[in-house]
Structure formats: structure tokens, C-alpha cells
Amino acid sequence: xxxxxxxxxxxxxxxxxxxxxxxxxxxxxxxxxxxxxxxxxxxxxxxxxxxxxxxxxxxxxxxxxxxxxxxxxxxxxxxxxxxxxxxxxxxxxxxxxxxxxxxxxxxxxxxxxxxxxxxxxxx
Length: 123
What we know:
It contains 2 helices and 9 strands; from the N terminus they run E-H-E-E-E-E-H-E-E-E-E. By secondary structure, the protein is mainly β.
């Protein structure tokens, strides 16, 4: 289902990188699937994978020509998040600017996230 609100948005850099990755995939890709999982020293980590199709119950966000499918269990954790792609001298990576994130571990692999208030979905 396509939502009437954007759970998350993309920067130009993130959209360009996702488009390049999809263009170089060895099979047809409908978009990127984003979620969160328990784990890491801070409690949670972001997940990303190719999405060949939208799964039942997933929200779909279309931003800057890219489809992002949101795991239903992750919606309240990702509400208001902006996904960016950053390159430095030492790394190139996707970065999640999440207003629900309360802390991160020192290595940057995991985060603590407080779910957004469900009322925010209807605002």
C-alpha cells in the first residue's frame, strides 16, 4: 500500500546511489526494502536489501524516482527518517538521520531507537 504520508525520505545522494545499485543488479529490482532488527551493542540496527516486489502489509515510499519498501514492524521506528549516502576518505555508506534515534554505539553499527507516537501517523 502506498501511504498518504512519507515514513522516510531520501537525499539526492541516497537516491542516486540506490538508482546506480539497482541499475547494476543482475535481476529486476523494484526498489529497496528498509527495516530495523534487534542486535548490536546499542540495541537495534538498520537493515537494507533488494526488493523484487512489495510484500503484503509493507508501506511504499516513492521519493526522487526510487521506491522504498518499509517493513511493517519498522514504521514507527523510521517515521521522519531521512536516508543519505555519504562518502569520506575512509568510507562510503548510507546514513539514517532518524529523529527517533536516542543513541548510537561507538562503532556506529547499532542504534537505540524509541518508536514514534502512533498518533503522528495521522497528523
